[in-house]
Each structure stands twice: as structure tokens, then as C-alpha cells.
Amino acid sequence: MAAPTPIVLDVDTGIDDACALLLAGLHPGLDLRAVTCVGGNAPLPQVVSNTLAVLHTAGRDDVPVAAGAERPLLAEPHDARHVHGSDGLADLDWPRSPHAPDERHAIELLRDVLRAAAGAGERVTVVPLAPMTNIALLLRAYPDVAAGIAEICFMGGAANVGNATASAEFNVFHDPEAAAVVIDACTDLDIPIRMYGLDVFYRPAVTREQAQRLIDADPTGPAGLAGRLIRFQCDRFAADSGTIGDAGAVCAVIAPEALTTRRLPVRIELGGTWSRGRTVVDLRDWTGDLAHDPHGQANTRVEVALDVDADAYVDLWLDTLLRGTP
Ligand code: BDR
Ligand code: CA
Description:
Elements: E1 5-11, H1 15-26, E2 30-37, H2 44-57, E3 65-67, H3 81-84, H4 106-119, E4 124-128, H5 133-141, E5 149-155, H6 170-174, H7 176-189, E6 193-196, H8 198-201, E7 205-207, H9 208-217, H10 222-236, E8 241-243, H11 247-254, E9 259-268, E10 279-281, H12 287-292, E11 301-308, H13 310-323
Helix pairs in contact: 1-2, 1-10, 1-11, 4-5, 5-7, 9-10
The structure holds beta-D-ribofuranose and calcium ion.
């Protein structure tokens, strides 16, 4: 059997970040080496507490968790507790972890993990599932960590739609400057970058019945938590199913073949009245347009996810949760 893929997550837990943490913590094909936290869906102390609680439920107290940036680089923070519940974790009153976070700042923990990997001749997949403030700070402060990164596979942006605004996705809208820095640094440092955005994000969805099956399988364990997180979404949005959300970006690491991507020029809109935070994905292919574009084409290229085998990702997530143990 191939060695598990080393991976780190950067999260703003968050219902769907929790879905991602459970998958990353339990799937035998992944070696989860660290989790770092950033303010986003909820304020940072709540994000850290939620993240520790989810990993404790998954039996993964061995994974170091560090707190990072409390706020975006420049923008004002706007949390998303209207989506995730007042505690950011579906208001389940889920038991807290007895463990404390690592004493290092998030970017110091990531630096240490990535340098250690590089020293051992390994590369780690970095999966940001939140505003990319920590990742921007990391790549600018410690560019040498690029030697320990296999790729950055981030949840954020969209080629076609928005959620936080009509044109922008939440994670990029929350800290557009950070997203722009990350895309720029990836070009500069030759780090492959994949965007798991809103064009695919909502598609892998778990039904209310499947959620109940998870809850029945292990009411107080990881499956029980996962099922309740889906059920909360079904109730909140009066829907028959709820997305696994950020967990799809982790699926993209485990099963990249189920994702259709295209390498495309991408810019982040940093001005704009109604479009700030938009990922401007250049889908044009007529050379006439491109040659006469006064802006020229972006040299920052990203593998943009445009389609997903949603059933494959739902099955992957459900099977992992139902199997349960790390
Ligand atoms: C993203 O925003 C957050 O609310 C979710 O956790 C996800 O990372 C979706 O736009
Ligand atoms: Ca998130």
C-alpha cells in the first residue's frame, strides 16, 4: 500500500470545516500533520475550541492545533455565524476537548512542519479551507517552506458565482489581499495551486436519511457529529440535503480523478464596488480577445475545479465516517 499523503489543514471551523477535519483525521490515505486556525466563520478563540473538539471526537488529539490570525490583513472581518450557528458548530453544545492548542503561532507550526518535511525529502499538501490570512503570512515570512509543499489545494473563489456577495465567495471575500498574496507567491515560488471553489462546492450533498444513518451508527462519535452537522444544514436551509462543503477539498486530495480542472489565469479583484473579493477566472480562448486585452492576461495560473463527480465524494466521506476509527 502507498504511504499516506502528508497533509495540513488551515481552518475556520465552521460546520463544513468540521466535516473536512473528520475526513482528514480518519482517512487511512492521509497523514494529518497539523491543523492551523484563522478567524473567519467565527472569531478565532471559538474556531480553535471547535477545531480541538472535532479532533478530540475523531480520536486525533495527537494532531497539533495552533491559533493564527485573528483578522484579515486589511479588510474588516465579517463572520458567518448566520450559516454555522452562534458557536460556529451548529449550536450542538458538543463536548469540548480537554486539550490546549500548541503554543506556537499558526505560521510557526506550519513553518516547522514544512521544513521538517523538506529535510526528510517529503512534501506536504496544504489545504486552506478558510480566509488565507495565515497562508499569505507564512509564504511571505518563510518562503523557504515551498521546498516542503507538494501543492496548495484551497477552498475558495469561483469561476461563475458568489455567496458572500453576488460576485465573491466567502473565504476570498473575507481576506482578498491574502488570497492575492497566496496566488502571487505560488507563481513566484513555483508551488502548484488548485482552487476548489463554489462551482463545485455545494454539489457533494448528503441527504437527511444518510445523516440519520451516521447518527444511528455512533451517536456520540465522529459519525454522530457528522450526521448532526448535516442535519443542522438541512433544517437551517429547509433542504433535503446538506453539503460536505470544505470536506470536498480534502476529497480532492484523496481522489483527484473525480474532479475536472483547467489551468487558467486567475486574478483577485481588490478594488471594485460590488465585485471586491471576486476571483476573476479567465475562461476566454479567442486569441483576438486576448491579444487586445489592455490588462494583458494574468500570469498567475491556477488549476480551477469546474466539475465534480459529487456521488464519488459523498461516498468517500460517508464510507470514511461510517468506518470510524483513525
Ligand atoms: C466557505 O465559507 C465558509 O463559510 C465555509 O466554511 C467554506 O470554507 C464557503 O464559501
Ligand atoms: Ca471554512
